[in-house]
Amino acid sequence: MSIDLSIDLPGLHLKNPIMPASGCFGFGREYSAFYHLDQLGAIMMKAATGTERFGNPTPRVAETASGMLNAIGLQNPGVDKIIAEEVPFLAKYDTCIIANIAGSTIEEYETVAAAFNQTSDVHALELNISCPNVKEGGIQFGTDPDMAAEVTARVKAASNHPVYVKLSPNVSDIVAMAKAVEKAGADGLTMINTLTGMQIHLPSRKPLLANRTGGLSGAAIKPVAIRMIYEVSQHVSIPIIGMGGICNAEDVLEFLLAGASAVAVGTANFQNPFVCPEIIEALPNVLAQYGFSSVQDAIGKGVSVYE
Amino acid sequence: MINKEKLRIVSSCQIAKDTVEMVLENDYISKHATPGQFVHLTVDGHTLRRPISIADINREQQTITILFKIIGSGTKRLAAYQVGEYVDALGPSGNGFQLENHSGATILLVGGGIGVPPLYNLGKALAAKGINIISVLGFQTGDYVFYEGKFKALGQTIIVTNDGSYGEKGFVTDVLDDLDFDRYYTCGPVPMLQAITTKLKGKDGYISLEERMGCGVGACFACVIPVNDGNGYKKICKDGPVFHAEEVAL
Q1: CB–CB of B206/B97 below 8 Å?
Q2: Where are the beta strands (DSSP E) in B31-129?
Q3: Any bridge partners for residue B19, and if so which?
C-alpha cells in the first residue's frame, strides 16, 4: 500500500508533514552537511528581527529531565541579511520555507513581515508572539488575546504571505488565544512554543541559565502540546502545525490524531541530526500500522476515539 | 566533516580523583580527528549530548582517548559504561589547534584541570615535529593530578596545585615568569584563561574554550562568544573551540 505523506496548507504544498522547528535548525546550512534538505516538507527558519540581535549571555542552555531549557534570546543577523544571504541558500532546495518573524514592538513585526514581501522564495510567515526569552515584546503579545489579535491583524495587513501564529503554552486559556488570532485573520497556527522554566545549580545556588529563566523543550513537554493542540483543534478551523517534544514517527502520528496537520521537530535535532529524514522514512509504516493510508486521513482522528 | 558514529569502548578507568580516561575505537573519527577537536557524545537517559575534547589519537589502533571529570548525572552515567559497549558520537567536531610552528621553536602548554587533556594530543603532535614543549599543568589538589608522566615525556613539566599538596603551590600563572617560549596554547576554566591571556598579553597564544552546547554543529546559537573587536560573535562549537588569544572576549 502506498501511503500519501503530502499535505496542503495555506501557502504550503508539503511533500511530507515534517519540518525542523524554528531556532533548532539555524538557516539550514549546518544540517545540509548531514543530508539533502530536499527531503524535508518545509524548513522553519530561525527568527528574524528588524535589526541584528546578539541575544542573551551564556550559559544559554541547560539540561532537564527529558528535556532542556534554552534562553538564546532570538540571536539573528537581522531580516535584511537573512533575505540577502540565508533565503537564497535555502531557495536552492526543493522544500517550503517558513520565515519566523519576531519583534519588540508591533511596528517591528510589521517591518519584518513587509521585508519578506520582496521574496517569493518564502512561502509563509510564522509570527513568533511567544518567545519567553526576550525582555520586551515577544511573550506579552502571546499571552494577551487582544494584543495577539492586534499584532496578527497588523502583520496580515503588512504581508503578502500566509501567516501562521505561533502560540505560547504559558497561558491559562490557550483556546481563547487561538480564537483571537483566528478572528484577526491568521491563516494557521503553530504550537506549542516552549514552557517557561528555571533550574538552580546546587553548588553555586545560581540559576543554570545566565538569563535565569528559559524555555523548556524536548520530550518533557509533549503531553502539554498534545493536550493544547487537541483543545484548540476543537475550536478553530484554521490548520495547526504541531510541535513540542517530537522524537519519532509515532510521536508524529499522535500529533496528527490530536488535530495537527503537519509537525515540526525541534530539540530532537540536537540529539540526532538525522532525526527529520529518519522520521520521514519511518512515517509511512507507522501510518499503515495504525490503519491510515495518508497523513490527511489521520488528522484529528484521535478526537472521535474519545467521544 | 562531522559524522554520526558508534564508538566502541576499549577501556575505561579512573586515573585521578573524579577523572575517567576512556579509550574509544572508531575508524572514521580516529582517522580524521586533529588536536583540539572534540566529540559530542550521547549519554543514555540524557537529552543533550556532552562535548568532550580528544586527548589522544591512535590512527593505527583506530582509537581516540577522552578524559572527563565526573561532575553531574551525565558524566556519572558515562563513567558507568562498560568495556565493549558503544557510545554514539558526533565528530570530529570543531576547529582544533593551529599546528604551524617552526621547527626548533619552544611552545608553552598551560592546562587547568579537565582542560589539560586536549593539550596532551597537541603536545604529542608538536613534539613529533621537533618542537620543544614546556608544560604547566594546574590542578585543585594532588588527588586530581593526571598525565604528569606523559607530559614529562614531551618536555619540561611543572605541576601546580592550588593547595600545594603536590608540585608547586598556587596558580599556573605564578610559575610563568621565568619561562621563555615562542607561542602558548592554553585550556582550562575561564578565570584561568583570563589570568593567562592578561599575563601573557602581547605573546602569540591560542585558547581552547568550553561551554554548554545544544546542537554542537553551529545551528542553535547556544555557545556563542563575543569577539574582541566588539563586532559580532563566534560559535564555540563550530568556529572554535580554539581561538587566538586576542580574538574573543573572555
Answers
A1: yes
A2: 38-41, 50-58, 63-69, 86-93, 106-112
A3: B16, B69
A270/B46 touch (CB, cutoff 8 Å), yes or no: no
A210 domain-assigned? yes
Task: Quickly state the pLDDT bin for B231 (edges 50, 70, 90).
Answer: confident
Q: Is A267 on the interface with B (CB under 8 A)?
A: yes
A280: distance to nearest CA of chain B, Å? 18
In angstroms, rounded to a whole number, what is the distance separating the alpha carbons of residues B23 and A134?
43
| Residue in A30, A67, A72 nearest the CB of B217 | A30
Q: Which of A61, A90, A134 to mutate to test the interface with B (most CBs of B within 10 A)?
A: A61
Q: State the cell numbers at B52.
A: 568532550
pLDDT of residue B26: 98
Contact B227, B247 (CB under 8 A): yes
Whether residue A207 is preceded by a cis peptide bond, meaning omega within 30 degrees of 0, is no
DSSP-assigned letters across all residues of A206-219: EESSTTSEEEEESG
Band (A45; pLDDT cuts 50, 70, 90)? very high
What's the domain count of chain A?
1
Which chain B residues are closer than 8 Å to A270 by Cβ? 47-49, 214-216, 220
How is residue B103 written as a grid cell?
A: 621547527
CATH ID of B106-208, from 3.40.630.30, 3.30.420.10, 2.60.40.10, 3.40.50.80: 3.40.50.80
Q: What is the DSSP string of B208-235?
A: E-----SSSSSSS--SEEEBTTSS-EEE
Is the peptide bond prior to B241 cis by the omega test (within 30 degrees of 0)?
yes
Mean per-residue pLDDT of chain A: 94
Helix axis angle, A145-158 relative to A174-183, nearest 10°? 30
Question: Is residue B91's pLDDT more than 90?
Answer: yes
Contact between B224 and A55 using a beta-carbon 8 Å cutoff? yes
- Cα–Cα distance for residue pair B173/B109, rounded to 1 Å: 12
Superfamily designation of domain B3-93: Translation factors (2.40.30.10)
A96 is catalytic: no
Interface A-B, measured as beta-carbon pairs within 8 A, has a size of 92
Distance from CA of B95 to the nearest CA of A (A): 15
pLDDT for position A228: 97
B191 with B114: CB under 8 angstroms?
A: no
Chain A residues lying within 8 Å of B47, measured CB to CB? 63-64, 66-68, 218-219, 267, 270-271
